[in-house]
């Protein structure tokens, strides 16, 4: 599986949410609404989720293993940093 496109939409308001991202895999499958969040230990991603009947939020789509999650997170955060740098120029 290759991530063939990453689209970053920066969030203008102040707060922990920094951007909302869509990724395309193998030019065939898209996952929307991945969030870039500023946490106590730095930036991380949160996969798209929805609120269940019991009030808990559950991921709609997510990687099955930590290696894949780390690869997706690395690519997204790299593109997010590139978007920030382009904005500064």
TrEMBL record:
The keyword rRNA-binding does not apply. The gene is spoVG. Belongs to the SpoVG family. Could be involved in septation. Keywords: Cell cycle, Cell division, Septation. InterPro entries: SpoVG (IPR007170), SpoVG_sf (IPR036751). HAMAP family: SpoVG. This is Putative septation protein SpoVG. It comes from the Bacteria. NCBIfam families: PRK13259.1. GO terms for biological process: division septum assembly; sporulation resulting in formation of a cellular spore.
């Amino acid at each position: 599986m290759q991530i063939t496109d990453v689209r970053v939409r920066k969030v203008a308001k102040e707060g922990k949410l920094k951007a909302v991202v869509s990724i395309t895999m193998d030019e065939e499958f898209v996952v929307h609404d991945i969030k870039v969040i500023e946490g106590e230990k730095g930036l991380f991603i949160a996969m798209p989720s929805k609120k269940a009947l019991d009030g808990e939020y559950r991921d709609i789509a997510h990687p099955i293993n930590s290696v894949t999650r780390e690869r997706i997170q690395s690519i997204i955060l790299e593109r997010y940093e590139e978007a920030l740098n382009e904005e500064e120029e």
